[in-house]
Amino acid sequence: MSNTQKLLTLAAETSKNAHCPYSGRAVGAAVLATDGKFYAGCNVENVSFPIGTCAESGAIAAMVAGGSRKIAEILVYTDGPKPLLPCGACRQRIAEFADPKVLIHAANSDGIRQTYTLDELLPHCFSEF
Ligand code: THU
């Protein structure tokens, strides 16, 4: 199985654990780090809506806690007709740990539907101060 296929399987599995009683949109994200380790996260909503967290945020937090520091590839999964691309805040979170050419996949139960580089999703990003 290819690394991209593993990301798809992992993200889809993890989306089943999403806590999404308010939007009803279960999302899973899976990260492959450059050291070969895989990490996953799901969205965790809250009755205080703005403090809910995205799947990518959880996957990146797991990656950092697991000791990895660089993203090689990332995939976001949601079951539904429209694949979901990372929100603006998550694009910035990815940029903290990824090179501009890193691939970001959006998938649903039909498989991978869209693939972009980080640079395409977050051009001219804020990267230093
Ligand atoms: N969501 C993610 O998990 N990742 C994104 O990139 C965008 C949106 C979640 C947040 C919320 O729980 C639900 O999807 C609907 O917006």
Provide keyphrases for this structure:
globular, alpha+beta, 29% strand, Cytidine Deaminase, domain 2, binds tetrahydrodeoxyuridine, 4 helices
Describe what you observe in this structure.
The chain has a single domain, classed as 3-Layer(aba) Sandwich (Cytidine Deaminase, domain 2), CATH 3.40.140.10. It is built from four helices and five strands; from the N terminus they run H-E-E-H-E-H-E-E-H. The chain has helices at residues 3-15, 55-65, 88-97, 118-121; strands at 27-33, 38-42, 71-78, 98-108, 111-117. With 129 residues, the protein is of the alpha+beta class. The longest helix is centred in the first third of the chain and has 13 residues, at 3-15. Tetrahydrodeoxyuridine binds next to helix 2. Tetrahydrodeoxyuridine (THU) is lined by residues 20, 23, 25, 27, 43, 45, 52, 54-56, 76, 84, 86-87, 90.
Summarize this, please?
The protein is an alpha+beta fold and 129 residues long. The chain has four helices and five strands.
Mean pLDDT: 97
Structural class: alpha+beta
- Bound ions, cofactors and other small molecules, one mention each: tetrahydrodeoxyuridine
**What are the low-pLDDT stretches, counting only 5+ consecutive residues below 50?**
none
**CATH fold category name:** Cytidine Deaminase, domain 2
User: Cα distance, first to last residue?
Assistant: 41 Å
Shape: globular
Order of helices and strands: HEEHEHEEH
- Contiguous helical run count: 4
